[in-house]
Amino acid sequence: MFMTVFRWNALGLFNMENELENYNIDQSLIISRIIRIEAMLETSISMQAQILANLEGKEKKVIQDNASNLTKETTLVIMDFLKNYPYK
Description:
The structure is a single chain. The chain has about 90 residues and is mostly helical. It has one domain (about 1-85). About 80% of the residues lie in helices and about 0% in strands. Helix 3 packs antiparallel against helix 4.
């Protein structure tokens, strides 16, 4: 569920379908790269959840903040990739 929400948020940032058609960009390549980034993010979040289960207090807050920052950074990577994607 999280990955689906993440994917649509990332795609929605650019009104992607219209943008890609306007600039004749290979949609399948971009979407496959976003899915790969999602898989890495999902693995990281899963590992952090396992760590969180064993922590309390201040340590738990640090891990939660790291997960939030990772999500933001991943979204920025996707945005940067799309902004600089070479047109056909």
